[in-house]
Amino acid sequence: MAQLINRSIVAAFCSLAMLTWPAVSSAHEAGEKVITNFEQAIPNIPGKSLIAVEVDYAPGASSVPHHHAKSAFIYAYVVSGAIESKVDDGKTRVYTAGQSWSEAPGASHLISRNASKTKPAKLLAVFVVDTDDHALTTPTKSSTQSAKALK
Prior knowledge:
The chain is an alpha+beta fold. It has one domain: Sandwich (Jelly Rolls). It is built from two helices and ten strands. It has a five-stranded antiparallel sheet with strand order 1-2-9-4-7, with no helix packed on it. The chain has a five-stranded antiparallel sheet with strand order 6-5-8-3-10. Strand 5 and strand 6 form a beta hairpin. The radius of gyration is 17 Å and the shape is globular. 23% of the residues are buried.
């Protein structure tokens, strides 16, 4: 009986969590789906939080150029497919499933896209960020201006 109650509580919590965790979408376009799958204050580092987001890229999809929160240290891990990425003045690289990289606080992400035109790709990005930093990504001015020019 106790196991049944515990399973019911876990199922209810998971359902509630999926309904209440927000999607991160400030610097993202159609063809990609960004979902926050974990957010927690770090108890032994006051003022810091750990936030994990999944980025699902449709074939050929990309993010607009953006920069990350000034406090955010990021660990990125390719779950499936291949992701083409360029951060700050670094080289443009293609990372495949199982590969990872990190990004310094305030980094500019100039390229972030699915390297394949035919297969989907998934990225897990884990942010260590100031708890008060709510915008994890912000479009760069040039990408905002380009989007306005296309309208």
